[in-house]
């Protein structure tokens, strides 16, 4: 992103905090084919839509923290080329909208979803340029003074900070049924000074010692239960 100043989709990067299925015939390809009537079936990766979420609850942590601790806040002009669905496209929804005819907020508000599933998916069509389309990159304060902050300062968009994710081992142990005891145990193993935050999980990921899907589920604990004083 520093080099190109562009936010790319999984079809270009091959990375995601969701499923890695962005290839011809893969689930992400199939969902897009269904939603957009085959319009992108033969399009190159850089021409495909990129994904976000509508922050209709105005959460300081972003609309969909299950996918990570940082988010880009796009400007209002991007709404003109954004489509929306509820629930997430992997659930093959039947409810769609555009910004000028938004019926999904009431639908989402009436649904009894877990906090990590409480978002309206957005698909932004066309190139997302950081210097044109982004109001701010919003980071977790655990990255202050780190290489992540240094890299963020090189992006052509303002940098902001949200209140932060931080989960104590004590609170983590109260929720073995949320994602499973094995992920609680892993979280306890990873904790530094009795706490987990995005920096701790990120450093664990870079060691290569842990399964990325396991770390993702530990992150779900932090995102779900780590936004208070726990």
Question: Which properties best describe this structure?
Answer:
single chain; 230 residues; alpha+beta; four-stranded antiparallel sheet; three-stranded mixed sheet; 10 helices; 11 strands; DUF3626 domain-containing protein; DUF3626
Largest sheet: 4 strands, antiparallel
> What is the average per-residue confidence, as pLDDT, rounded to a whole number?
95
Strand composition percent: 15-25%
Element-level helix/strand string: EHHEEEEHEEHEHEEHHHEHH
Spatial sequence of strands, sheet with the most strands? 2-6-4-5
User: Unreliable runs, pLDDT <50, ≥5 residues?
Assistant: none
Distance between the termini: 33 Å
General form: globular
How much helicity do the residues have?
A: 25-40%
Structural class: alpha+beta
Q: Say how many strands there are.
A: 11
| Rg estimate, integer Å | 18 Å
Pfam families: DUF3626
Protein name: DUF3626 domain-containing protein
Organism: Micromonospora sonneratiae
């Amino acid at each position: 992103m520093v080099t190109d100043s562009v936010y790319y989709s999984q079809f270009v990067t091959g990375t995601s905090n969701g499923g890695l299925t962005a290839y011809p015939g893969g689930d992400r390809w199939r969902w897009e084919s269904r939603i957009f009537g085959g319009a992108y079936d033969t399009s190159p990766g850089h021409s495909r839509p990129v994904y976000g979420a509508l922050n209709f609850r105005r959460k300081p942590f972003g609309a969909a923290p299950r996918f990570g601790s940082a988010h880009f806040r796009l400007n209002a002009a991007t709404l003109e080329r954004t489509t929306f669905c509820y629930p997430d496209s992997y659930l093959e929804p039947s409810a769609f909208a555009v910004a000028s005819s938004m019926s999904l907020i009431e639908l989402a508000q009436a649904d009894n979803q877990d906090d990590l599933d409480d978002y309206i998916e957005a698909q932004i069509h066309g190139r997302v340029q950081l210097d044109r389309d982004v109001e701010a990159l919003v980071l977790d304060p655990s990255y202050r003074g780190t290489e992540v902050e240094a890299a963020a300062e090189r992006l052509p968009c303002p940098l902001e900070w949200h209140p932060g994710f931080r989960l104590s081992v004590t609170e983590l142990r109260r929720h073995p049924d949320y994602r499973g005891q094995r992920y609680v145990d892993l979280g306890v193993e990873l904790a530094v000074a009795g706490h987990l935050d995005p920096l701790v999980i990120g450093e664990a990921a870079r060691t290569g010692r842990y399964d990325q899907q396991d770390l993702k589920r530990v992150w779900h604990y932090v995102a779900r239960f780590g936004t208070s004083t726990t």
